[in-house]
Amino acid sequence: MMRSCTGSWLALFAVLFVAACSNPLTFSFGQRPKMSFLHTRHRENLSIDTQELKKLQFYISTQVLARVVSTPGRGASPEDVIIVPQLTRGMATEVGPSWLRVRFSEEGSGVVFVAVVTQGDSAYWLATEIEGQQGLQKLKDLPKKILLNQGTAYELIYGDHARLLISEKDLSKLIEQRRHLKGVKASD
Predict the structure, then answer these.
(1) Cα gap 153→76, rounded to integer Å
(2) Domain extents for the chain?
(3) Per-residue pLDDT for 152 more than 70?
């Protein structure tokens, strides 16, 4: 009896250990693994320039449901609803020092993602401008989840925690383009 209990505890410990060691920012879902695109670790440390950023394939981390904020007395119409499925592909159209504008459809200029680096590193989070305030704000931190995009206000029903992902394969290709030292063999 004691032996089966010990075996169960060991199995539970092994599962918890594997879960603790896994990267919570990595997504795969039967596809090539994706990871959060990080400002310091990826963009700054690898010196990814504007042209390279515009060639990278980005993905959105979660499904987003947004609806145009309607004027009083007018209800929302089906055309006012936008759904962006999880892992939808996107491309950067504009690049700032700590933000990227990424579009997920052929039309439009896209939405902004901002990296707010404090201690350590930061992912790129879905962001908006707020009237009367300077800079970009992460939507996840706002009490009202309203995204202002090119003069139109969108209410986020869900997806305010969306961030940018990149595939491990694409990042590896970029790293391969950097200079790699071959090493020097010591003389005998």
Answers:
(1) 13
(2) 24-176
(3) yes
